[in-house]
Write a structure and sequence with these properties.
13 helices, alpha/beta, eight-stranded parallel sheet, three-stranded antiparallel sheet
């Protein structure tokens, strides 16, 4: 195999704010793996919360590039096992694993969802995310992008009032993501008010390690609660089963499609609702997520929709949420 690494700075259409940060751009790493005339593409974004930089990921890969290029590639699963032996960070593993899966599908001439024995005839709709902002700007974002399903980022001193105001401007379903900003008491108090306002579920309201608080929330909240920051890697799934109604799997955080598929399997065994989320990736990362759609209950794959401009072609999300899968096999990705 041959490896090429490309760094991009993705410009966001709007300043994106959550409870702990704001940004106008997103750095991302694209890994290109080539073999027998085919090239697979993978992606991982930088992330200050997890102390991940593009330069750090590139340095990790460059340090083991010879070993990777000399590997006799036969399947993404075996390749992933090999990569784990190199002691790479999960974000770095993700970019490599996504590229390997895309490459494998292109070598086999089939989309990944078909290789995995699933059909793309039925799938959940992605939400569209509205970041924290002034009420007027949040309303303007709703009006700019009419969508059947919104994820609303919260974590302010007046969260219920924000949702109440947004509800005046749309009948769409809301999901709430507080990104660890609430207490257990606040969550339990807010839940019935938010349910009346058409909220479907709450995502990660408490700190990632507040298991005592989450026990109270699961017992007393009138809305389902989905783990995000509490469910990063495969070993987290079982623990989350006792404290959440579902899990949100992020490919970048868990290490890619290969571990994500195992997390989905484990989550199903535990009776959890399953969601896969994005990290403001381009169409490279979003197209990989889309291969998992037939296996999911919920999905947050609007990353490329939040960008001023994209860097790739692949899966398309049309107005109203319909997903168009490309004819190209694998994850269907082409760099622009």
């Amino acid at each position: 195999m041959q490896i090429k690494l490309k760094k991009y700075i993705l410009q966001l259409a709007h300043t994106f704010t959550i409870s702990r940060e704001s940004r106008d751009e997103q750095d991302t790493l694209i890994v290109c793996l080539s073999l027998d005339g085919k090239t697979g593409y993978g992606e991982a974004t930088s992330n200050p919360y997890y102390k991940i930089t593009i330069e750090g990921m590139m340095a990790e890969i460059e340090a083991v590039q010879d070993q990777i290029e000399n590997y006799e590639f036969d399947s993404p699963e075996n390749f992933y096992e090999f990569l784990e032996s190199l002691d790479l960070h999960k974000f770095t593993l993700c970019a490599l694993d996504l590229a390997a899966n895309d490459l494998y599908g292109k070598l086999k001439g089939k989309p990944l969802y078909e290789i995995w024995g699933t059909s793309n005839e039925k799938y959940p709709m992605t939400n569209y995310t509205i970041g924290i902002d002034t009420i007027d700007k949040m309303v303007a974002k709703l009006q700019e992008k009419p969508w059947p399903l919104y994820k609303i980022k919260l974590g302010t001193s007046d969260d219920v009032a924000i949702v109440r105001e947004l509800r005046k401007h749309t009948d769409s379903i809301f999901r709430i993501d507080a990104n660890t900003a609430w207490s257990a008491e606040e969550t339990i108090k807010n839940a019935p008010l938010l349910k009346e306002l058409g909220v479907e579920f709450l995502e990660q309201p408490l700190k990632a390690d507040d298991w005592e608080g989450m026990s109270l929330v699961k017992e007393q909240s009138v809305l389902p609660v989905i783990a995000d920051e509490s469910c990063i890697i495969e070993s987290d799934v079982e623990q989350c089963g006792g404290y959440f109604h579902g899990i949100n799997i992020k490919l970048t955080k868990c290490g890619g499609l290969t571990p994500a598929r195992r997390m989905i399997k484990k989550g199903r065994e535990l009776g959890l609702q399953l969601m896969v989320g994005c990290m403001t990736e381009s169409t490279v990362g979003i197209s990989a997520i889309a291969q998992l759609l037939p296996q999911l209950d919920y999905v947050d794959m609007d990353g490329a929709m939040l960008l001023k401009g994209d860097i790739a072609k692949g899966v398309e999300i049309l107005e109203g949420g319909k997903v168009v899968f490309p004819k190209l096999p694998g994850s269907g990705i082409e760099l622009l």
